[in-house]
Design brief:
The complex is a heterodimer of chains A (about 250) and B (about 325). Chain A is of the alpha/beta class and about 250 residues long. The radius of gyration of chain A is 19 Å and the shape is globular. Chain A is built from 8 helices and 12 strands. Chain A has helices at about 45-55, 75-80, 100, 120-135, 150-165, 180-195, 210-215, 240-245; strands spanning about 5-15, 20-30, 35-40, 60-65, 70, 85, 110, 115-120, 170-175, 200-205, 220-225, 225-230. Chain A folds into 2 domains: about 1-80 and about 170-255, Rossmann fold (3-Layer(aba) Sandwich), CATH 3.40.50.300; about 90-165, no CATH class. With about 325 residues, chain B is mainly alpha-helical. Chain B has 15 helices and 4 strands. In chain B, strand 2 (about 170) and strand 3 (about 175) form a beta hairpin. The longest helix of chain B has 29 residues, at about 300-329. Chain B starts with 12 loop residues before the first helix and ends with a helix. Classes of the chains: A alpha/beta (about 250), B mainly alpha (about 325). The interface of A and B includes residues 90 and 95 of A.
Chain lengths: ~250, ~325
């Protein structure tokens, strides 16, 4: 039966000054699908995803979510749709603690004096963060620890806890395995499989085709801001995808 | 899935003790200064002198509150002294020439202060001015208006009951000290119990992360600079009452004292690090030193030199502390 894509980006273009970062790019993700997004440096992968997460606004093109046309003009819009992004640099504030980072911008509050005062409700935020962190098997004993005191891997876990904390429907991961050891990569790929089982779609931007071939359903290839190909993982090989990344392909809609 | 990375040991008892000393080093410094002054001046250690210290510096404390919020964001407000003078003059002018009552005059003066902050904040938030520039401009504008409205002289003839704010006391405690205490408490609650406080720390710590977390960074800056303006206006009203007049020349060294207090209190100029309790200690350090130097008969010119040296020492201690912490890791 024909399914409605969870996200459909149509004819997206974005320029920075004279640089055409994206040119008429089409992109779609089905529910509970893991999609790889690959391409050389400056191919436009991150730019495309930042358009979807609301960090950038496209000059041209449409975004459809669950069969409806939507406007995503800032990160709040995209979060409200259930789109979360795991940034390559984690986008955490090191000077505040773990649970404050997880709930940053979405703090829980309690109303006082009939809603006149909204006071931070710290206990449930700390408890929920602890729960999330335990689920990710991170060895952080206290959620009141400042993020800058954590190791790189632990910081990534906090960033992951944040993207899965709010019933996401789509999680975008920008180079999630770039700075991880082998075991940690395995753990992250397991997490992606579990997210898929829960019906959550995942987009993985990566240089490492291995990772995408191990968890992905589809792979999109970008080159110099243009989409040069889309393949189903089952029907392609790493060699073919690599050829697309390097050489591009003609005749692709 | 098994644990991969090494669990970190978090609770070293010795480290904790060291952390305690580090955390309270400024407080220990303050106590040492008090001890030295107690030994060198027979007038220092008395309740009367202590209350006098608090009264003399209530306006600095209020300015320092606004500055703490601004510096936490990684911004600066150079206009606090000028806006304080403007608040002083506006309150006096409204009562003497405007024919308004005390309460409306106070409200208008607070509004004038807030407006100054709002204007500098507007350019910072929406035109990406550096706050150094917009508040430097506001320093000139506010001070200029304060002098224009007083014609460089003083406005006299304030109603008698207005004196209560600056000169009255409730029990043994002077009203300005109570006002400062309330402002400090409110700011502390803002920073620790409200979303805005959380957002101030996040913006100061990593502005891009804050933006990506959906925080309206411009709005936070606008609000915080307005709050600083409000604090400056309030400090000006207290000065008008204490001086029983409106004077455009007040508070010319207050910027130095207020910034010094905030920095000595452990707030980082880089943003994201600092607390109101720290600022309270910072204000006390500056006030006690000024008071002590007065009691010892040191001229006010040398006091400026001393405060400059103390700022350097405080920041040095902070820097050494930070480097030691980095080495520990």
């Amino acid at each position: 039966m024909p399914e409605v894509p969870l996200v459909e980006m149509r004819n997206i273009s974005k320029t920075f000054g004279a640089v055409k970062a994206l040119q008429n790019v089409n992109f779609e993700v089905m529910p509970a699908e893991v999609v790889g997004l690959v391409g050389d440096n400056a191919a436009g992968k991150s730019t495309l995803m930042k358009v979807l997460s609301g960090a950038y606004v496209a000059d041209q093109g449409e975004i459809w979510f669950n069969g409806k046309k939507t406007d995503i003009s800032d990160p709040v819009d995209s979060r409200n749709l259930g789109i979360e992004m795991l940034y390559q640099n984690f986008a955490l504030a090191g000077n505040i603690n773990i649970y404050q980072n997880i709930f940053l911008g979405r703090e829980l509050t309690k109303n006082y004096l009939g809603g006149l005062f909204k006071i931070l409700d710290k206990k449930p935020m700390a408890e929920r963060s602890h729960e999330l962190i335990s689920r990710l098997k991170i060895d952080v004993h206290r959620v009141t620890k400042r993020v800058k005191e954590l190791s790189g891997g632990q910081q990534q876990s906090v960033a992951i806890a944040r993207v899965i904390a709010f019933n996401a429907r789509l999680i975008i991961m920008d180079e999630p395995t770039a700075n991880l050891g082998i075991k940690e990569v395995g753990r992250l790929l397991d997490l992606i499989r579990r997210l898929k089982e829960q019906g959550i779609s995942v987009i993985v931007i990566s240089h490492r085709l291995d990772d995408i071939f191990s968890v992905g359903d589809k792979v999109f290839v970008l080159k110099r801001g243009k989409r040069v190909g889309m393949r189903h993982i089952k029907e392609t090989t790493e060699r073919e995808v690599l050829r697309l990344i390097v050489g591009g392909e003609e005749g692709e809609a | 899935m098994e644990n991969v990375s090494q669990p970190e040991t978090l609770e070293h008892p010795e480290k904790k003790m060291g952390g305690w000393v580090k955390r309270f080093s400024t407080l220990i410094g303050l106590i040492l200064i008090c001890l030295v002054l107690t030994l060198t001046s027979k007038h220092f250690l008395s309740l009367e002198n202590f209350i006098n210290i608090l009264l003399q510096n209530a306006n600095i404390a209020i300015l320092a509150v606004g500055l703490t919020l601004v510096i936490l964001l990684g911004e600066i407000d150079l206009s606090v002294g000028g806006v304080e003078a403007l608040g002083c003059v506006v309150a006096a002018w409204m009562m003497v020439y405007g024919g308004l009552g005390i309460i409306p005059s106070i409200i208008i003066a607070l509004f004038a202060g807030t407006l100054c902050g709002l204007v500098s904040g507007f350019f910072v938030a929406y035109f990406r001015f550096h706050s150094f520039v917009s508040t430097l401009a506001m320093m000139g504008i506010s001070r200029g208006f304060a002098l224009i409205y007083t014609h460089g002289a003083s406005i006299y003839g304030l109603p008698d009951s207005f004196r209560f704010i600056g000169q009255g006391s409730i029990g043994p405690i002077p009203v300005p000290v109570l006002v400062a205490a309330v402002v400090l408490l409110l700011a502390h609650l803002l920073l620790t119990q409200f979303r805005l406080g959380n957002h101030i720390y996040a913006v100061g710590g990593n502005i891009e992360a804050a933006r990506l977390a959906g925080i309206n960074v411009g709005r936070v800056k606008l609000i915080v600079l307005s709050l600083s303006g409000l604090c400056s206006g309030l400090a000006g009203i207290i000065m008008a009452s204490r001086l029983n007049s409106g004077q455009g020349t007040i508070g010319e060294t207050d910027l130095l004292d207020a910034i010094a207090s905030v920095i000595i209190g452990g707030t980082s100029l880089m943003g994201g690090v600092g607390t109101i309790p720290g600022t309270i200690i910072g204000v006390l350090v500056i006030s006690v030193i000024r008071n002590g130097l007065n009691l010892l008969g040191v001229s006010s010119f040398w006091q400026m030199v001393a405060i400059g040296v103390i700022i350097i020492c405080a920041v040095m201690v902070d820097e050494i502390r930070r480097r030691l912490q980095e080495k520990e890791r």
